[in-house]
Amino acid sequence: MLVPDRDNLRPPIPVCGNRSTNRASGVARAGEGRSWLLAGSGGVNSAGCLRTPLQREMPVSRHEPMFNVQASVLAVLGLMVAVHLVRMGLSQDWDTWLTLALAFIPARYSGFAELLPGGQIASATSFLTHTLLHGDFLHLGLNAAWLVAFGGAVANRVGSVRFLLFFAFCAIAGAATFLAFNPGQMVPMVGASGAISGLMGGTMRFLFTAVDGRGLAALREDPRSAPLMPLAQALTDKRVVLVTVVFLIANILAVLGLGSVGESGIAWEAHIGGYFAGLLSFGFFDAAQTNTSSRTTMH
Fold this sequence. Notes:
The chain is mainly alpha-helical. It contains ten helices and four strands; from the N terminus they run βββαααααααααβα.
């Protein structure tokens, strides 16, 4: 999540016209999954089957997918890439207009909405559209990697619809937190890292229960088998607390100027707001668990 250098920010200049899995995973079978090598004749056994001196089971080749990412995650990533490519093809004036129309700008809610691109409509839509904008390919690439990692884990567990709702909720929470800390500021905020921080927070609710159970492989093979960690337990679990503390320290360092990208700053407010929104609310978006785990979920 990036925001421009506040000291060098100028008011916008008017335009002058110029982003269910088949668990069989493509298993190659011979007959019912077994291929027998028969040699010689050994008669018939009591079950009426051919008995042979040499009977060996041939190995079955199993092809696991390298990546197992829901289409909804790829769709969000595709939108992010598409918007960035479109902006690259625009003139500077039109790129500025589009950026300001999609970015989240706190000044919209202090009487400046009509003076900014997008008008009153952008006052509502920018809570979500800011996630589609990125400062450069580095910013986009980092967010894309984290989106696939945490978004993939969440989407594989809860499905596409719940993933999109959860992503949107965390994006709105991150933007609202940014607004609370920067009321009236003419500071455009862009990037999906607030929403992705929420995906990270949500993942904390089932990541370590998976580790304690069947291991990380369960997140790929049966992501719903990991029990949802109750909120009270999550807030006291040492591993979740450690991740949260490290996350907060990283954002505090960003406030001090460490971790900034170019002339832009890190929107730490959106990161923290999104993370805690995801951590605290994930239970409301979680899907029913499979038979291999407890069906009880707690919010």
